[in-house]
Amino acid sequence: xxxxxxxxxxxxxxxxxxxxxxxGWLNRRLCFPIAVAALSxxxxxxVGLLLRVLNExxxxxxxxxxSPPWGIVYSVDYLNGLVLVxxxxxxxxxxxxxxxxxxxxxxxKIGAFYTLYILFVTGLLGIVVxxxxxxxxxxxxxASLTGYGLIAMxxxxxxxxxxxxxxMGTIGASFYLLGIGYLYxxxxxxxxxxxxxxxPSLYHxxxxxxxxxxxxxxxxxxxxxxPLHAWLPNAYTYAPSAASSLIAPLMTKVMIYVMIRLMxxxxxxxxxxxxxxxxxxxxWLAVIAIVxxxxxxxxxxxxxxxxAYIIVAEVGYMVGGAWLGNRAGMTGAILHIANDxxxxxxxxxxxxxxxxxxxxxAFDDLKGLFRKMPFTMxxxxxxxxxxxxxxxxxxxxxxxxxxxxSIQAGHYGFxxxxxxxxxxxxxxxxxxxxxxxxxxxxxxxxxEAHAERVAEAPLSMLVPLLIVxxxxxVVGLYTGDIVxxxxxxxxxxxxx
Amino acid sequence: xxDLIPFIVAKYNYWIYITLMMIGLYAMIAKNNLVKKIVGxxxxxxAIILFYxxxxxxxxxxxxxxxxxxxxxxxxxxxxxxxIAHYINPLPHVLMLTAIVVSVATLGVALALAIRVYNRxxxxxxxxxxxxxxxx
Lengths: 496, 136
Description:
Chain A is mainly alpha-helical. Chain A has 21 helices and two strands. Chain A has a domain at 278-496.
């Protein structure tokens, strides 16, 4: 059983998506339990895989018994073992937390929604688990196409926002495919480990350089790295709340994983940081991404769009950290994949609860919310503190590693950008908290409404949210263990 | 100038794919109509498919099936050595079967979204839609 974890991770959700689709026609109440069961298997296998990786370093699974480089392998090491756990746990928690909101938003289309949901998670898990560069492209498109479907199910402006996302996303995926094509021309292989074994003698070839840059641009488009971010804010804002709290934490983070995988495994650090002299300029791009993300977030007048722009800034953190080219920066970037997934999940679940109760997420709708929804807003404060980077929440620790990395690399511009964005985050979140805490609720004539009663979201939405909020602190407290036992081994020895 | 023409002709497959890709990209950036943008996107994807197909091709080579291999072995005669240069590499073509499926699926999703946009705004021209959203 345990030797089949890597494939169960992908096969079980994939097949259950078809069952959910059938259940959507027969009996809609079955959709949710099947989805929960499928993702529980995924969580179980990913945790089991991480435990196996801690003992065996690398778990290889040869699909159909074909050995690499001819067959497709699923290979799990410390890096993707961690990301797999994050993806499956975030997807399961969000699934449980948004059950009521999905029922409210799509009474008729529950079957379609859960089918897309599970297929999306299948795609993401497949991207993370696979050891084959072309396989990654196919799974990337599975995740993207289902992601377009999920976002387009949202409010009235969603289809247009999704169409813009689709144009940009397709160009991104096509660029990745083109880059893999160039790599295939020079190496004749698609297996990641095999490519990286063949490449060293070709590091000075211009084809390899072109392949690397084209792949990177494709991945940056998909993760909304600043100049290429235009699709993200609208798509995430107009998506249905259950979909945005799934896609916002996971899609960009998985693409960061793909970038780090390309940098560390396919093209080795010797090539990325030694042969190329790009790293300084990419870190400066990340600085611009962080500053622009923070400034654009300041300009927003509604909560969901503000959070979407914060994601743009967070992507800058991770890209910059990975490109600093030292151990502390890379540790910060990998740790931030996990932390940012959790804290984005936390704040987007809060938005989901607010939308469920008051049908709006503009700043004006938030007045008096602390009295009306104390637990939801309590979780929001924890998520906000984590995004700002206050200890002992987990956001502090990854930011600490990133700043440490920027000092070691002597890149003070990146450090300044991180501190600037933390300060802007303080303003952003305290403005929201101020509106929610101090501004009185007004009724339609503009008079102050009388004593607001507590009207919390239902328990099934509240309990997972509080678990996530507590998780932010717990992950923060166990950061030392995560870094020491997992991330330390995920970074190759070449990076000092 | 005399160097340029052989340079282009020698690698004509790359020039064709890059030209097609740029036509597609131009349509996606410059066209105002949503469906024209979708068509541009499809040209863009097709260019990459053609790129893969062209790198798998080889002059004077045949399909990678070894004729009578099993029959000769049964008769006991040793078949002559297999020259790799005589056969094309089928892998890029096989990969493109998947990529074609992906591009058809993307096209389908995009057109479905365009229908949703049209039903709401009664137009597919991007500037008119933006005017409607801004409330002009």
